């Protein structure tokens, strides 16, 4: 992997490692617009201030935008979510593996 690719991955991971960033994207994965309040409910225990900061960061990164009906993922955000689509299957497999170790 080139240093340019490493830098790009580092930047993306830094953004996604921010508390609740992935949850905000995940809540918008179905493509339906969500108001601030609905998005806050979808994400869970996030405070309004933190949600506002995450939205601001994700908008600046070009992954989320605000339309007439609320917040939506952009084409770029949808592409990222598409690439993360295998995450639920992996998470299920991983949890099952951990459960076997606890026996």
Brief overview:
With about 100 residues, the protein is mainly α.
What would the keywords be for this entry?
transcription; Putative transcriptional regulator; Arc Repressor Mutant, subunit A; mainly alpha; 2 strands; 103 residues; 6 helices; two-stranded antiparallel ribbon; WH_DNA-bd_sf; DNA binding; 8% strand
Write the layout of secondary structure elements.
Elements: H1 3-16, H2 21-27, H3 36-43, H4 48-60, E1 64-67, E2 70-73, H5 75-83, H6 87-102
Antiparallel strand pairs: 1-2
Describe, in plain words, how this protein is organized in 3D:
With 103 residues, this protein is mainly alpha-helical. It is 65% helix and 8% strand. The protein has a single domain (3-102), classed as Arc Repressor Mutant, subunit A (Orthogonal Bundle). The chain has helices at residues 3-16, 21-27, 36-43, 48-60, 75-83, 87-102, and strands at 64-67, 70-73. It has a two-stranded antiparallel sheet with strand order 1-2. Strand 1 (64-67) and strand 2 form a beta hairpin. Helix 2 (21-27) crosses helix 3. The chain starts with a helix and ends with a helix. The relative contact order is 0.13. The model has no long low-confidence stretch (mean pLDDT 94).
């Amino acid at each position: 992997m080139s240093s340019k690719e490493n830098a790009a991955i580092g930047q993306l991971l830094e953004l996604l490692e921010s508390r609740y960033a992935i949850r905000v994207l995940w809540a918008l994965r179905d493509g339906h617009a969500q108001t601030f309040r609905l998005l806050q409910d979808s994400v869970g225990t996030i405070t309004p201030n933190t949600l506002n900061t995450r939205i601001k960061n994700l908008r600046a990164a070009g992954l989320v935008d605000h339309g007439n009906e609320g917040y939506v993922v952009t084409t770029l955000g949808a592409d990222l979510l598409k690439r993360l689509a295998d995450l639920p299957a992996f998470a299920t497999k991983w949890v099952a593996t951990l459960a076997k170790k606890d026996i």
